[in-house]
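Hi there,

I know you've been waiting on this one. I reran it after we fixed the sequence typo, so this is the corrected version. Both the input and the resulting structure follow.
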Amino acid sequence: MKDVMERIQTTAGNRIGGRPDTVASDLAYLTIGFVNVCLFGRPGAPNGGWVLIDAGLPGSASRIRRAAHEWIGPWARPSAIILTHGHFDHIGALRTLAEQWDVPVYAHPLEHPYLSGRSFYPPPDPTVGGGAMAALSRFYPRGPIDLGERLRALPDDGSIPGMPGWRWIHTPGHTPGHVSFFREADRTLIAGDAFVTTKQESAVAALTQRPELHGPPSYFTPDWENARRSVQRLAALEPLRIITGHGPPMQGERMLSGLNDLARNFERLAVPAHGRYVGQPALADENGVVAVPPPVPDPLPRIALGLGIGLLLAAMLRKSSRPAA
């Protein structure tokens, strides 16, 4: 327990500081709450000489700007913001930053319905994962937002604006238009939430950031078959250094062995035994969500109601047992 508390305190201190940590000489990341944003560009790069990847939680714009000043310089302004996907914890400061910096936002076309005001994401499944983060997912925002004319499609040729030497890879499952980014030269992978390096369903794991490979956050993954294929596609790249949307970076042969194990045994290691989307995925197209399976029984509201009634009855009994004045 002492080790867990020390890890929580250390991680929280790093987050408050706002200084980005290094992944490579031209790649840094900042952990905001329980989610990572990445900054691609060398320290000292001129205005327009770097890009921001994802945009963190709501209210984090000032922290992201400070991180950019620390990593690039006080003049820091990117050429673009690139999205792995559009879930609320990856676009929280997006509109604010895009407007303040006056830059375009790039995402896969299948992600555009959720970034142009056309469609909500499928409902989360709070019954999977077994942790507090999963249980709370019933309250998480699921869009959409409308970026207007700032929204652009990633190039068809796989290149990434402002990131020479990198290519984007369509990795659906967690969302229809989810993408990951790979640089062959040093086999660095920015995986988004295609897989993560912490058990994101658990609040303790999300706070401590203990490195361990997991599938995508289960409560927000509506297509498990595509999620499996995406992990297998990324494992086949044989990355040597990874940074994901949740959890610390990992590198080396031990990491690659764990990723290969996740890809080979995805059904056992990542897919919930039961859940709303386990047997039937949500369906989506270029206009957004088309159909979702019916919800599965969720015991938590009944448990909460039962606890509330029990507490009320206990209070009434205590009051009735008091002697009359």
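Quick highlight: The chain has one domain: 2-291.

Best,
R. S.
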